[in-house]
Amino acid sequence: MFSNKDIAQFADLETPFYYYDLSLLQRSLSACANAAKVYDFHVHYAMKANFNDTVLKKIKEAGLGADCVSGNEVKKAIEIGFAQKQVVFAGVGKSDKEINEALDLDIFCFNVESVQELEVINELAGKKNKIAKVAIRINPNVDAHTHHNITTGLDENKFGVNSWDLPDCAEMLKASANLEFMGVHFHIGSQITNLDVYKNLCVRINEFAKWFEERGFMVKVLNVGGGLGIDYQNPEQQIPDFEAYFKIFNDFLEKRPNQEVHFELGRAIVGQCSSLISRVLYVKNGKNKNFIILDAGMTELMRPALYQAYHQIENLSKQDGEATVKYDVVGPICESTDCFGKEVLLQETSRGDLIAIRSTGAYGEVMSSHYNLREKVSTAFSQE
Question: Biological process GO terms, please (predicted)?
Fold first, then answer.
């Protein structure tokens, strides 16, 4: 991924920073858009994965919509130039302020996660003499077989309407003059690499769509969510198999004529297009452990501390040498969990070496913080 020209450029930049490969981002976007076009599927980009302005503009230019989970994400999507008719608003805890702002922006749809939320949106829309388009996010109780902290589709999770509450949803929809039912919405988790999981999801989507149809509702949209994972172990496997992913839904969804199928993909599009570049501050060699202390920490990349997530780590200054030393690669933050990797096999490393932490395009920069009064992490971009 990194040319000698890239590494020479890094040497002149203050670390740490996120480096974005815009060419790779463009190839990922093209692969996703082309694969979806075969089936006339609609893709909304999950903004929570990465809302860097430059990245968002590329995604908007590729024709994708925006999937938002906060009022500020909705406003950001509109500011960047996403069409209002392509913006959807999900989230288990939308505030009245956020709902009102989204109503004013005339977004395409609210993905609603409780009966009480339906009541609130109807009331707020009524005060504005507006009709709010809504889809019901249903908890299908499908196991995504991913990390427990990023599973969202089980009965034990806080997300979505449980099946036993659907009759109340149906009654509320029929009684609400300021709501327009658009369809059903699902999202069962993130970093899903076993595509068979989506076959199980399709079975449940078919069941719930039929449930609404039998009660007189027209299901215009099947929103299947996202969650497609990337290969963190092999970051050179840069673009997920979008063709196989979309084909599963084409093969297993019972799509009606004129019914739209919507997706909400984030990590699969942006995950591999960025790396966190850092410098070695100190090397501490001990009897039982060798430590590399970087100038990047959990304030720049939270995932390893939060999920025990794996990211491939490379010494860019010693690319030609043989990896012979095991290091715990840690940051400068005053927390024991401030660690990017344990027993990482690298070339013998020295103070000042440049280190790349790969596959950080999703949930990297967006989760950075000012803890310990750290400065905001900077960014750099490849020349396409």
Answer: lysine biosynthetic process via diaminopimelate
